[in-house]
Amino acid sequence: MSNAIAQIVDTYVRLKNRRGLDELMMHRQRLAVDLKSRSGAFDFSLPIGKIDAEIAIIEEGLSRLKAESAETGMTRPI
Q1: Which of 16, 35, 50, 67 has CA 20 to 30 A from 9's CA?
Q2: Among 29, 9, 10, which Cα is nearest to 21's?
Q3: Among residues 10, 9, 34, 31, which one has the least CA distance to residue 22?
Q4: pTM
Q5: Residues 6 or more apart from 3 whose CB is under 8 A from it?
Q6: Spatial CA neighbour of 8 closest among 48, 68, 51, 54
């Protein structure tokens, strides 16, 4: 799944779609919070790890987008 997220993030960055990246980040963060709050017989460590990896990819995309907007001199958020 991380490869798919990386491709989605790359597309959002290329299109300068900050809103899309923000929404993707919020969704993954909600999933992580939900999974981390669960307890029981099932081990959620693997899906939590995958979601955390996806969050890192999205954060990197947001950083790239911010750097690109700074390079072009954009002063308003995208």
Answers
A1: 35
A2: 9
A3: 9
A4: 0.84
A5: none
A6: 54
